[in-house]
């Protein structure tokens, strides 16, 4: 193991607040300009730097150090045996050192496919020696490294390992028995293991204290009942709800099964994933953020008995241009400096949103800031980003709390490394722009789902189309699928008009497409992708000022599904045997989907009408309230497109 600082390009940035030419102190504002950033250099092909973060004092110097995990970008995961990498950036008086130590991981696994896929990191103290310790896990094993003054020596060899096959997942450190030391849970295929820290014991650094058979899920939940032992959300079997199990310490007033209570404290539905957050309503119990995954995201307060309320105090649907709102959630203290320490960050694919409740949370709560701040995708946009967030407190001593954001891009080109980690400074919300970041409120669409008769009604979200359309360049190999499928007119470097197509069902019945067995003429087998494509379901077209078609494109659909909820009165998320979209839901072909573009390389600059259509062949028997085609004028000029009024 050696220092790998040469493969990172580290950039220090000046805070992007409202500076003055006379250098007088200015009011700190939330900004898109980072205070500190480290970016993966392009020589480590296929690596996604910033897949996970941990923050603690590993070398005992009194400052928090930053751990960054690097995993494989490439899909499918078994295509490479890259073992994953862990890098530690030592803490300094302000932020972190630009020099770091790094090590490739090794895994004690029974699988020949062992790699660092799904790599994650977490910090804790497993032996009480004053140094924070590090847990690193992947799909193939667990490694525990003991903190010490020399960080390079720390990463040289794990002090404890758990071997895995190829289906392992692990929790972060949690203190199940209230002794102040870090324990953890490992889920294998068909077995769940609980490891308690036992430094100095004959059994070693950890003791396996409990094994549960079956397919299990575990999520640390903090100390739910205030007894000093941390608790965990566990699955209880197929078709059963999940249970909140209390950690067991000596003298616990309830029956114990090893390190956890014999029975759950209470249960919740299996479909709901909760992330507990500090008490907001003063009853001593945590509240919960629920949702994500394209449906409704919401905050629920606790009841007097600690259970979650059945209704939400705040709900949000997200933005189809940046889908999967709720993919990230983190409480961040008082990020905007307004004196209220209930701020939280919610992430989607491509964007992070800041919320700053002042007092009680209500449905009127809106985001005060976002990274990136613009509601539209800029020209040159290459790929969506996914985020990991840490709340470090005030790193530079300016009296404002900061935010650490790891950002990874997922594009088509895996020949370069991807990802960066940035520190953004806290501050007040800027006066401009006035409008909050775009998000869909939780409102009914008037679908009339209770009617005895009705039909689906498919349309395209014009607003999402206008906000996502942009121009970018890409290079295609002659043997690439995009060339073979004629998604581009020639190999080489091509100029593309890219956009997201959001197919909505605003009718009161599900839009279900015939399967290939029912109507094989609707499908074609794609030799390149090795699956069937639904052909000519969506069409893209550019027309000149006389109305003549000058360019066309098409998306060969491979799956239509409920990806994004548009309405408070939407149907429950459906799963269809062939393809389908439920009432109030939409499928999204995002900008980074292959062939989701029109090749405009040889098209002259000028003004055109951009048109997107779905189901023009009437494959679905649908209503006519909403149009199947939407269009708007655009101006193409150089490497940019402008949406015109």
TrEMBL record:
<dbReference type="InterPro" id="IPR013519">
    <property type="entry name" value="Int_alpha_beta-p"/>
</dbReference>
<dbReference type="InterPro" id="IPR013517">
    <property type="entry name" value="FG-GAP"/>
</dbReference>
<dbReference type="GO" id="GO:0016641">
    <property type="term" value="F:oxidoreductase activity, acting on the CH-NH2 group of donors, oxygen as acceptor"/>
</dbReference>
<keyword id="KW-0677">Repeat</keyword>
<dbReference type="Pfam" id="PF01839">
    <property type="entry name" value="FG-GAP"/>
</dbReference>
<dbReference type="InterPro" id="IPR028994">
    <property type="entry name" value="Integrin_alpha_N"/>
</dbReference>
<dbReference type="Pfam" id="PF01186">
    <property type="entry name" value="Lysyl_oxidase"/>
</dbReference>
<dbReference type="GO" id="GO:0005507">
    <property type="term" value="F:copper ion binding"/>
</dbReference>
<protein>
    <submittedName>
        <fullName>FG-GAP repeat-containing protein</fullName>
    </submittedName>
</protein>
<keyword id="KW-0325">Glycoprotein</keyword>
<keyword id="KW-0732">Signal</keyword>
<dbReference type="InterPro" id="IPR001695">
    <property type="entry name" value="Lysyl_oxidase"/>
</dbReference>
